Amino acid sequence: MTQGDARVCPFEQLSLSSADTNQLQLVLKAILEANLGRYQDFLASDKGKANPSTWKLVKTTHRTRVYLERQHRPSFTPFQAHSSAASNDPVLQPFLCVGSTSGNIDDVMLGIVNPPPACVNDLSKATLLSTITLPTTANPFQSVEMKWMELSVRSRLVKNHDYVYVEVTGTRHLPSGERVGYHLLHSVDVPVARRLPDCVRAQLSVCSFFRQESKTSVAVYTLGMMDTLDDRARRVIQPHFVNILLSTFKRAPSVDKKILEKRDSEVGTGVSLSRGNCVTCSKRPWRLGSAATCNVCSGFVCNSCKVVKELSFMTPELDMTKRRVIFCSSCAIDENVSEFSAAETSSCTSSWGTAHDSDLRSVLSFS
């Protein structure tokens, strides 16, 4: 295996005892409640915006801002029981992501629990080790699963990092009655999931909440940290993971069934798409030149208005291939054709730049 390549999961599915399952559920509930409290404080005290005295902006991408915590005092990490042991740890920094994505809460949650084939990354390829809670008809997004994931960084200086963690998803209501979705990733220590050669076993604790801020927009909030065990690796692993995580919250461009149904109804009722004018700017035929066709609505678009993106698709042979896809401006917005969902390799290899080293303030704890 060459450096940076991801491997097939070497672990078999695990069977947890009832006692272990109950204990894990209690721990996860405590972590989720603690994070929900922080999220409510963020909405109430900070008005849903990052406090510049606490958080340093390190990256702005599309509709999301990524921050690292400004460090003022040493504290303990959520991966240790005693703060006295934290002094020997490498420098860690919590990160905060604040932004929005198109659609509604159900769209976002569906993309998390069932990623579309076009959106393939290290997180979506994580291997299921054990299912603890299954979705139900009443709670289709409620799930608790133990997984193994390897982050493939493709770097000669930094080894791949792998994680054994529990993923928790679902929806609930705030005291105000407002519905929110949640997504929690928290590392667990499973002895049978042994450490692998040429790979660093690391830890993470990341919690996201999603709130409907308008009819077509969902507010995204993510607070987390990653223990990469090495400061140099942190500067590579953490930005890489955040890009992957945020891309999971974006709907991949696809031929939506509603759009197809609308198109079929228009054809059935005799409503035809104009072959003479651009569907965006309505230019006359003689000004169109070599017109293209939107891959979603099949409308004609001129060279000035067409949106071209290189997207990844899964072939019937389960191979990944890239293809240039043409959209009109309207479909590009409706389907959220963004830098997260298109040609993600460029964003995944990007860096936040140099960040100030510091100690970790307690942000995600078991209590």
Automatic annotation (TrEMBL):
Classification via InterPro entries: Rab4/Rab5_effector, START-like_dom_sf, Znf_FYVE_PHD
Protein name: FYVE-type domain-containing protein
Organism: Phytophthora nicotianae P1976
